[in-house]
Amino acid sequence: MKRVKIDDLKEFSVRSLEKVGVNKQNAETVAEVLVATDEFGVLTHGTKNLCQYVQKILA
Questions:
Q1: For 15, left (φ over 0), alpha (ψ -120 to 50), or beta?
Q2: N or C: which end of the chain has fewer CB within 10 A?
Q3: More confident of the two residues 51 and 2
Q4: Is residue 55 predicted with pLDDT exceeding 90?
Q5: Which CATH architecture has domain 6-58?
């Protein structure tokens, strides 16, 4: 399994959300929560859902 640095994962999440129109402040908040959830070990509610969120925003 490839490991990703926490800061890189947050930045990727922020950029992904901003790219679909989420403002920077909200994108940073969402990214922080998603990554923190991963760090806590709750993998069902973390960054694994980022793609779904982006798709729903685009719908």
A1: alpha
A2: N
A3: 51
A4: yes
A5: Orthogonal Bundle (1.10)
